[in-house]
Every structure is written in structure tokens, then in C-alpha cells.
């Protein structure tokens, strides 16, 4: 498989290495078009070719696949909305753990990234273009919306709904909801690193601390 990754940052390099581990034959990083030449921009990053984003449709016509190597939920969502028709693939680290039925749930999505040590429990509903950081856990009966970011080492307990483009910082914990009343982290909300969430978080809110406020 030939894989082009949107982004040319450190996270893009990390996903490039994951793609190599998954057996991708060719990998390129896509830098956002600036509209002007930039002679100082690197042509390779860690051995990966860096191409201008304007080459996207040429690559797609040549049977390349795509993923979005951007950690920020809002920016990842913007790329997905800018190029909704591209053939996006999921990147799942071989050391991630998916409960029974979750591989099929993730396969029904597009463009999600599951890093080493991440664990998805049973009956998790998965959206597209989500990023599951290293060693994070997603409890039973959770909802992970489109373009959600779950940071490294974050723990999402059971019956939690992460709405579209929500961000859970590294090491944060969202305590469990119930089947009758799931805990809700609103769309575009941000939970700070290390926070402990004990109540619902409204759309667009930023919370931090223990308990998170």
C-alpha cells in the first residue's frame, strides 16, 4: 500500500514509522499548500518524502491511500472536511488491544489512528478520524465521536460519550456514566492533561484540575 499522511510534524513521523511497521511500501508526508515557493522547507523528513498538499488528487488517482497525521482535533476535522472523498485508512498498532467485535467497529470507520498500548473495551461505538493515544483506555459502552482525540495514558471509564472533536488530554480520567445517563463530554470540549472529570462537560468548554472545572 502507498500511504500519504497529511502533516509533516513529529506526529506525522510517528505515524510514518507505524505505517512502515504495518508494511506500507511507500510513505509520503503532505505539507499544507502556502501558495508560494519555500526553498527552506525540507524535501524529506526522517526519510519520508514531503510533498505539497496540492498533489493530493494526483496521488489518489495513482491508488494512494490517506491518513491524517495531525494531533489537534479541529485541524484534523478541517482536513477531513476539505477532502471528504479520499480513500482514508485506519492505522492500528499491532500492540493495541481491541475487545471482541471492536475490530469490526473500527473497520467501519475511516481514518482513525490507534497507537501502541491503547485498549478498547466491549461495545464501544467508534467514529471516524479519531486518535487513540498510546496506553489510553476506552471503557465499555462508550461513544467516541468523529475527530475525537484521546491523549496518551488517558482513561475513559464505561458509559461515556465523547462528542465530535472533543479532546481528552494526556493522563486525564473521565469517570463512568450509566447506561441510563452516560457521562457526556461535549463537542469541541477540551479536558486538560491529568484532569479528573466527575460531571458532564458542555460543548466547547475547557476544563482542568481535580475535579475538573
UniProtKB/TrEMBL annotation:
SUPFAM superfamilies according to UniProt: Trimeric LpxA-like enzymes
Matching InterPro entries: Trans_hexapeptide_repeat, Trimer_LpxA-like_sf
Leader sequence residues: none
Protein name as catalogued: Acetyltransferase
Organism: Paenibacillus sabuli
Amino acid at each position: 500500500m502507498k500511504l500519504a499522511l497529511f502533516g509533516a510534524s513529529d506526529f506525522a513521523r510517528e505515524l510514518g514509522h507505524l505505517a512502515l511497521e504495518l508494511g506500507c511500501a511507500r510513505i509520503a508526508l503532505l505539507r499544507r499548500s502556502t501558495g508560494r515557493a519555500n526553498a527552506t522547507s525540507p524535501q524529506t523528513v526522517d526519510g519520508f518524502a514531503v510533498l505539497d498538499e496540492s498533489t493530493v488528487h494526483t496521488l489518489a488517482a495513482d491508488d494512494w491511500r490517506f491518513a491524517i497525521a495531525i494531533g489537534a482535533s479541529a485541524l484534523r476535522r478541517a482536513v477531513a472536511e476539505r477532502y471528504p472523498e479520499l480513500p482514508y485508512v485506519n492505522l492500528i498498532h499491532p500492540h493495541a488491544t481491541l475487545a471482541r467485535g471492536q475490530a469490526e467497529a473500527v473497520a467501519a470507520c475511516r481514518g482513525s489512528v490507534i497507537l501502541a498500548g491503547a485498549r478498547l473495551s466491549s461495545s464501544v461505538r467508534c467514529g471516524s478520524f479519531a486518535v487513540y493515544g498510546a496506553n489510553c483506555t476506552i471503557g465499555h459502552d462508550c461513544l467516541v465521536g468523529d475527530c475525537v482525540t484521546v491523549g496518551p495514558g488517558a482513561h475513559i471509564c464505561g458509559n461515556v460519550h465523547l462528542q465530535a472533536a472533543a479532546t481528552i488530554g494526556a493522563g486525564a480520567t473521565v469517570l463512568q456514566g450509566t447506561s441510563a445517563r452516560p457521562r457526556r463530554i461535549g463537542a469541541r470540549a477540551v479536558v486538560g492533561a491529568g484532569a479528573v472529570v466527575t460531571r458532564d462537560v458542555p460543548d466547547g468548554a475547557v476544563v482542568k484540575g481535580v475535579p475538573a472545572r
